[in-house]
Amino acid sequence: MKKILLLLGIFLTSIMLMSCSGSKYYTYEKGLYELYFMSGNFSSSSFEYFTIELFENGKIIIKIKGKYTMYADEFKAVGKFSIEDEKITVNINIDGEEFTEVYDYKNGEIHMWNVKDPENNISFSAKFRRYPLSS
């Protein structure tokens, strides 16, 4: 009887631990991604930097700093991301407003296609590559 109770206890404990660790970890995907291609209203040379940093726990930090006076202030957004079926879903909060965007995630790169901001008359496509390049 003690063995049955012990086995039952181990079984229930392992089920509980598995349910608590339900969040996905992004060990392979984590890292700093830098802009290497952009088309549309901007080009990659328009920026001092434009980076996306992915963390293993699903946190994302986007940092942008333009080279020109109009866009010279640094923009920084923090949020969460998830990756599934070669798509990265990004959830960020900017000035109290929630934004959700879905981009392509293929071969260790993030591709933003036809991003539009009609309020500011901006549209662009961009590609980001992880640095340092890992094998």
User: What separation lies between the terminal Cα atoms?
Assistant: 52 Å
The quaternary state of the protein chains shown equals single chain
Total beta-strand segments: 8
Strand content: over 45%
Order of helices and strands: HEEEEEEEE
Radius of gyration: 20 Å
Task: Describe the largest sheet.
Answer: 8 strands, antiparallel, barrel
Helix segment count?
1
The secondary structure category is mainly beta
In CATH, what is the class?
Answer: Mainly Beta
Which CATH architecture would you pick? Beta Barrel
Give the helix proportion (percent range).
10-25%
The coarse overall form would be: globular
Total domain count: 1
**Strand adjacency order, main sheet:** 1-2-3-4-5-6-7-8
CATH-level-4 superfamily name = Calycin beta-barrel core domain
Average predicted local confidence, pLDDT: 82
In the CATH hierarchy, the third-tier topology is known as Lipocalin
Task: Outline the secondary-structure elements.
Blueprint: H1 2-20, E1 31-40, E2 47-54, E3 59-66, E4 75-84, E5 87-94, E6 97-106, E7 109-117, E8 122-131
Antiparallel strand pairs: 1-2, 1-8, 2-3, 3-4, 4-5, 5-6, 6-7, 7-8
